[in-house]
Design goal:
This protein is mostly helical and 571 residues long. The chain contains 24 helices and five strands.
């Protein structure tokens, strides 16, 4: 499929408002512009001070006021209007609650954002490296802005739990050290290749600027670490739980839907039990009747063909597996646009333990990428555990979903294509995609199927853990009784997730500091399956044959929207 195959649509007044808002957002948040792949902002830095956050909030209020006066002319407009009101409205609620000012956790806060953005910046030309130098030089000012925002939030009693403050301080220490990412980033073969045709004097000048920028970045993180440790830690609460009011707000933000939290918790307990029973049945197929899950894992881990040694082998296997899935699905279960056929699999420069996807740039000059961040202690990998992850991050998961949306220039405005992301929609689809691959026969190998169930079990456990801890719900006796807390959560997670301890510790700290995000995966999958089942029931009621491929095309064609908006649009 090429862009010529897509239906054309005349842009509307609402599209113009949405496109202008993306331009405004890119100006106010150049880091987001880089992440979206919008050219022209890579040399600039986002203002993360209170004034910067206020400017973004003012722009959000202004665009919502414009939308109040706008009349939709077609279904695309109606979805845009609903999606922008939902997303931007929630962003303002979080602003008004000082959540953006005080945002601090071990995975998705300014402490990580200021470093992670360099992973997606282009590095092919001297001009692109000059952009990197400019952004490195601006990092101390950005870090000062982060400190100012955290101070203001603290004055309003919005301080992250001490666990998150300490985690971020430790990360900042690493980035300030002699072996910092910034030191290695501005050296090596990539830079050498980009400067190969430069006159020596210009090349040396740029190298010097990059080295000085790396030192400035390290110094900025040293300042940030000192503030976190010496000042903010003294103000941080010991309690990890968000509490009901904060948690409900973040849950709505991550899902784009309002759910009954107690009902969802009860469903999570039942879903965990269902997945465990399915897992145990597969374990018996692998290791014999009556075999435990541990025994089945031991059998799989002992099979040499399922073991990868080192990150180079992991990267090669990721790429081969992802490419094979794309080839098998294209034209059969999905019609994949030509630019989306390219997916790069990479080992991340960080070592935190996360696995994630970054979307393509607006013009696809930067392809979609799957990243694997590997802790130093992890040196071997088992394919049976990870095949389902490749489908989750690649095709038919995030890469198909995100890159296909970027491709839809002929029908969707830039806000719909580039700026709107809802975790419950995106992560829910990716989990839905894992199950879909099992249904389509791609996980018929018993080890691969056990790996898929292992991932589903973790996601179900996260629903129970996250809602239980942050709402302070009663913990069932089989998991310790009393009230959920971090200690019970660790024992519960260890019993339900077969991952190395370094991964698990990182994951638990993530859940404790980013309330509502982790359950969005499994709850999102539930809502995606509900939408599909409702569409199938409607087709049956009308005497039609349900076309799953067409349903997927229609649903993904909407782009990432809140799950309530998705359900309404599909209805």
């Amino acid at each position: 499929m090429t862009s010529a195959d897509l239906p054309t649509r005349t842009p509307t007044a609402i599209d113009a408002i949405a496109d202008a808002y993306v331009t405004t957002s890119a100006r106010l948040n150049p880091l987001a512009a880089t992440a979206m792949g919008i050219a022209g902002y890579d040399h600039l830095m986002t203002d993360l001070s209170p004034a910067g956050w206020q400017a973004q909030a003012d722009a959000a209020r202004a665009v919502l006021a414009q939308l109040e006066q706008a009349e939709p002319v077609d279904d695309v407009d109606r979805v845009t209007l609903a999606a922008m009101r939902e997303r931007i409205g929630l962003e303002l609620e979080l602003h008004d609650a000082d959540e953006w000012l005080g945002l601090l956790n071990n995975l998705a806060s300014p402490v990580q954002e200021l470093r992670d953005i360099f992973d997606v910046m282009p590095t092919d030309t001297p001009e692109q490296w000059a952009n990197i130098a400019a952004r490195l030089e601006a990092l101390p000012g950005a870090a000062d802005g982060v400190v100012a925002s955290l101070r203001l939030a603290a004055s309003r009693a919005r301080v992250a739990a001490v666990r998150q403050v300490r985690e971020c301080a430790a990360q900042a220490d690493d980035l300030a050290g002699a072996t910092s990412f910034f030191v290695t980033f501005v050296q090596g073969a990539t830079l050498d290749a980009a400067l190969a045709q430069q006159p020596d004097a210009e090349a040396q000048a740029l190298r010097g600027r990059l080295a000085a920028g790396a030192d400035a970045a390290r110094s900025a993180y040293a300042t940030l670490a000192a503030y976190l440790r010496d000042e903010l830690e003294q103000l941080a609460p010991l309690e990890d739980a968000f509490g009901r009011e904060r948690y409900a707000l973040w849950s709505r933000y991550f899902l784009g839907a309002t759910v009954d939290l107690e009902e969802t918790y009860a469903w999570g307990v039942a879903e965990l039990d269902r997945v465990v029973a399915e897992q145990e049945a597969v374990a018996a197929q692998i290791a014999g009747p009556g075999a435990t899950l541990e025994q089945a894992i031991a059998v799989l881990d002992a099979e040499p063909g399922r073991v990868l040694d080192g990150t180079a082998a992991l990267q090669a296997w990721m790429q081969t597996t992802a490419d094979a899935a794309i080839a098998a699905l294209d034209g059969v279960h999905f019609d994949i646009p030509a630019p989306v056929l390219r997916l790069e699999c990479r080992i991340a420069p960080t070592q935190s333990g996360g696995i994630y996807y970054t979307g393509p740039s607006d013009d696809f000059s930067r392809p979609g990428r799957m990243w694997w961040s590997v802790p130093p202690s992890v040196t071997t990998f088992t394919t049976w555990r990870e095949k389902t992850t490749v489908y989750h991050e690649g095709v038919p998961g995030h890469h198909l979903q995100v890159a296909q949306t970027v491709f839809q220039r002929a029908t969707l405005n830039s806000w719909r294509r580039l700026a709107c992301w809802v975790s419950g929609h995106g992560e829910g689809w990716a989990l839905y995609a894992e199950r879909l691959m099992a249904d389509l026969g791609f996980l018929d190998d018993r080890g691969d199927r056990l790996g898929m169930l292992d991932g589903q079990r973790m996601r179900a456990a996260r629903v129970v853990l996250d809602i239980g801890v942050h709402l302070g719900l009663p913990c069932p006796e089989r998991w310790g009784g009393g009230t959920w807390d971090a200690d019970k959560a660790w024992e519960f997670l260890s019993a339900n997730v077969a991952m190395p301890e370094d991964f698990l510790r990182f994951e638990l700290n993530r859940y404790l500091g980013w309330g509502g995000q982790a359950p969005a995966y499994k709850i999102g999958q539930r809502l995606w399956e509900t939408a599909r089942d409702e569409a199938a029931a409607a087709a049956q009621a009308d005497g039609r044959t349900f076309d799953l491929k067409a349903f997927h095309a229609r649903a993904l064609g909407l782009g990432s929207v809140g799950l309530d908006v998705l359900r309404e649009a599909l209805a």
